[in-house]
Design a protein that fits this description.
One of its GO terms (molecular function) is ATP hydrolysis activity. By secondary structure, the chain is an alpha/beta fold. The protein has 8 helices and 9 strands. It is about 30% helix and about 25% strand. The strands form 2 sheets. The protein has a 6-stranded mixed sheet, with helices on both faces. Strands 2-1-4 form a 3-stranded antiparallel sheet, covered by helices on one side. Strand 6, helix 5 and strand 7 form a beta-alpha-beta unit. The termini are far apart.
Length: about 250
């Protein structure tokens, strides 16, 4: 059964309009328009190198677009946007608890708040482990806890389920759904189309730096008369799916 319930349409809390991003002479994003709703999980899907990380970093305000704009229309908050990088890394020499307390202190959280974030990702037992002694999956979970500290109105998660076991992958998507249920806009990327089909309220398909389709995954599926998000993805993506298209190299 579906975990997702489509929330009512609202004004976007974050709006990418006609966004371009170039690295030197190489165009990585071209004319990307993407409204991000509060109360919803918005998922970016697309082949390796299609521009998902670049777009997420632009949405998070970490990378300036070379054209177009990103507008935030959410509440004033100490931390507007939380971000999980694709490869989270923490300063060695500190425990998980100390690390999260540090991030909490930046937004005025008390000492216990970060631990609640750790509990949410199922990692409370690792609170006193050094961050440099965590497994890859555990590090990602600490990264998700870090991204939600200060309860930002927008949370941007770059491949939050990558490297997680099946149970934790599902749990991470449940957390995303829960956050959306409490009014947080969650934008994430993932290659797990089955999990996305269950949890995402909006999906945007990126191909070669452009959004080629977007909408409620059920609507998109129905419109294209296809029976799964995987089939939609395969239909939407152009070119050879066994070759990574490298912008500026492959024509
Ligand atoms: N700093 C940079 N300088 C030059 N090119 C870059 C830079 N960062 C990313 N790119 C290029 O931009 C393109 C898109 O990369 P991006 O990381 O956004 O893709 P992605 O869709 O997130 O890929 P994946 O699914 O593999 O994580 C790639 O061709 C990449 O080589």
């Amino acid at each position: 059964m579906s975990e997702r319930q489509t929330p009512p349409a609202t004004e976007p809390i974050l709006h990418a309009q006609n966004v371009d991003r170039e690295y030197g002479s190489i165009s990585v994003l071209e004319g990307v328009t993407l409204p991000i709703r509060a109360d919803a999980v918005t998922a970016l899907i697309g082949p390796n190198g299609s521009g998902k990380t670049t777009l997420l970093r632009v949405l998070a305000g970490l990378l300036e677009p070379t054209g177009g704009s990103v507008t935030y229309r959410g509440p004033d908050a100490t931390r507007r946007i939380g971000y999980l990088p694709q490869q989270p890394a923490f300063r060695p020499g500190f425990t998980v608890r100390e690390t999260l307390r540090f991030y909490g202190s930046l937004v005025g959280d008390d000492d216990e708040a970060p631990i609640e974030h750790l509990e949410r990702v199922g990692l409370a037992d690792a609170a006193d482990r050094p961050v440099d002694a965590l497994s890859g999956g555990m590090t990602r979970l600490v990264g998700i806890a870090q991204a939600t500290i200060g309860d930002p109105p927008v949370v941007v998660l770059d491949e939050p389920a990558s490297g997680l076991d099946p149970g934790m992958s599902t749990h991470v998507f449940e957390i995303a759904t829960e956050l959306a249920g409490t009014g947080t806009a969650v934008v994430l990327s993932s290659h797990d189309l089955e999990l996305l089909e269950r949890h995402a309220h909006e999906v945007a398909i990126l191909d070669d730096g452009a959004i080629v389709d977007r909408g409620d995954p059920v609507d998109v599926r129905n419109r294209l008369e296809l029976d799964s998000l995987r089939a939609v993805y395969e239909e939407a993506i152009s070119g050879d799916t066994r070759t990574v298209r490298v912008q500026g190299v492959t024509t």
